[in-house]
Amino acid sequence: MKIDNKQMIRCLELAKQGIGNVAPNPMVGCVIVYQNKIIAVGYHEKYGEAHAEVNAINAVMDKSVLKESTLYVNLEPCAHSGKTPPCADLIIKHQIPNVVVGCIDTYAEVAGKGIEKLRAAGISVTVGVLEEKAKELNKRFFTFHNKKRPFIILKWAETKDGFIDVERNVIANIEERNMKQSSQTKDCFVPRNDEKVDNWITSSFSKKLVHQWRSEEQAIMIGTNTALNDNPKLTVREVEGKNPLRVVLDLNLRLPEQLNVFDSSTPTLVFNSVKSEIKHKLEFVKIDKNNDLIPQILNELYQRNIQSIIIEGGTQLLQTFIDANCWDEAKVFIGNKTFTKGLKAPLIDKQPNATLQFDTDILNTYNNA
Description:
By secondary structure, the protein is α/β, with parallel strands linked by helices. 30% of the residues lie in helices and 24% in strands. The two termini are 29 Å apart.
């Protein structure tokens, strides 16, 4: 069993290399062992391309030794044809006698069928090696298929005295002038540099970490006030990686088109109650503001195969998800700064599962069972 655990850890390490690139598929790593030595490894590198088992088997130079080998994989081999052929069939084809699996794939197209097919072919299959770690790695995938919605990560930064933002009277005045000027001209007023408010809470190290998180998830969402007040880009400028789908909730379409989220640099969805329209990489999705917004938004994202989303603010939007108990994980930075007064941070009525120190900041992580 210790040997199985060791090889499964290697599978999990390999699988993690696919984060941010394989969704909506799961992250999978594979190790092939012959006479107590690893002879090949592989992982699912990119959505639509070869699965981990295929890459590992293809890496074996002498295929004849597969008949005396053990294949380790953190997730049950698939038994259905999608963008690639079934991995279970490939394992059977090469007559690999032993297969060790981390956890069962609960996706309806698999759900034990891969294991059943292997055993029917006379292959010895061991299931449940480091099962909890295997499930944790693919928590996004399992949540997406079991709950029919994306895996939801709440993220914000607050000061030592519990504020997420400074007072925004200055910004409110800017918005009022925006509306007055836009009624007189076609161009909307854009805040000048000297009107910006210093509301940055965390360190540069934490900022880079947040950008890394963004690159690992499929979407990121903000509300109207955050878009208006902070004018964020919601990209991964600080790290290498793919920008997430930007999601903006702007029910009455009051955001000026000059904001960064409308720059067409990356695909953006705007949930609103006015219109449905597509403009290049910018898409307006109409929802009913008289009904619960969260289920409508999550269902639309599910239909678009969005497996995970970061909710990045502000307080009103975050607290709405918290109050609806519709979240899976929360990452809350506490910066080494005080505002004395301003906008209060959201409240989660539970203790953090983990607390870490990053530079001058504290990071609390919460899991919603």
